[in-house]
Amino acid sequence: MAARVLRPHRFDVYVALGGLLGGLLLWGAQVFPRRTDDALVLWSPDWAALVPLGVTAGCELLRRTMPRTALLTGVLALTVDTVTRGSVLTIVMFTDLVYAAVLYGTPASARRIPWITGLLTVAGLVVPVAVWQVPDSMLIGVGIGAIALGPATTGALVRNHREAAEAARLRAEQTALLAEMDRVQAVTAERARMARELHDMVANHLSAIAIHSTAALSLDDAGTSRDALKVIRENSVAGLAEMRRLIGILRNGSGEHEPAAAPTLDGLGALVETARANGLDVTLDAAHGQVPAPVELAAYRVVQESLTNALKHAAPGPVRITLGEHDGALRVVVTSAYDHRDAPRAPGSGAGLVGMRERTELLGGTFAAGADGDVWTVRVELPLTQGDSA
């Protein structure tokens, strides 16, 4: 597999060409920072200054793709430049190489280069004065600070600013993602709650309608048909009222359809009377104290759904509802005669047991439903303490 060639960035090409052309113009105009008789000039021909200039310009092509290699090569070019008559553009491009090495280099390079240039600057301030005892020699340290420490510090500041901006952007994206996840979860939970409410409110009425309409069609008796039609009409009106109320809730309570108060355990008597009117033999035994509202609503819906299931699935026989407090929990037990037929008397979606289990688990309770011989039992325990904070 061929190695991938790193092409220089367009801006880097412009920097390299600009530095090279500028250096050539200064060279052509004979503008040099040092004279031929300078003690540091060991390579005096004028053309010698073009060698570090060209090398440094080439390093500029690598300032973004290979910043550390470019800087090390630039150090060698600057060293050669100091023994020639030199070029101002070579020094300027070297400062850019230091800046780019900190900005685009590895995190380790970004940490080390400012420290190294800082130490070199301090050494350039202290060592010459200690050796030559001449205050003007401190200018060496000033020069090192100008061409090395200054660009390195600037690069570190720019890099830190960019990293902080990138971290802020990532945090914003993460916050937006979490907010979207929360929104989706909230929508899903609300849809599940609405599905449970719709099922619990309407399924009982529709089941009664289905069963009594079947009886009216199968029995050729005017009195029976009249009674069945009466029950059908009552359940149709009640179911329609519940549907209108639900639609009103979905429309934010606008118009004449205002949300009704949540059902309470005090309404179990009316629920039992409706079940009796639909043909069930129901007895209610409730002994409990003050119950938190979430627990009260869940218990009411469990009883309501259990009566609906008894109407659709149970064999002829008594239905017994028992409510009581046990060990800090409200226990709800509904028993009915179990019918071993393959098909129910009215079609069902299978969402009733799922809804009861969801309501129970939301309050940290336990749910169990199943047949024991000829008896179907629904048993729910709802912690009273969980209901206070629900």
Largest sheet geometry = 5 strands, mixed
Instruction: Give the radius of gyration.
Output: 43 Å
Query: What percentage of the residues does DSSP assign to strands (E)?
Result: 5-15%
Residue share in helix: 55-70%
Please summarize what this structure is.
The protein contains eleven helices and five strands. With 390 residues, the chain is of the alpha+beta class.
What does this protein structure show overall?
- The structure is a single chain.
- By secondary structure, the chain is α+β, with helices and mostly antiparallel strands.
- It has 2 domains: 164 residues, no CATH class; 130 residues, 2-Layer Sandwich (Heat Shock Protein 90).
- It is 63% helix and 11% strand.
- The chain contains 11 helices and 5 strands; from the N terminus they run ααααααααβαββαββα.
- A hairpin with a 2-residue loop joins strand 4 and strand 5.
- Helix 1 packs antiparallel against helix 4 and helix 8 runs parallel beside helix 9.
- The radius of gyration is 43 Å and the shape is rod-shaped.
- The chain starts with 9 loop residues before the first helix and ends with a helix.
- About 2% of the residues have low confidence.
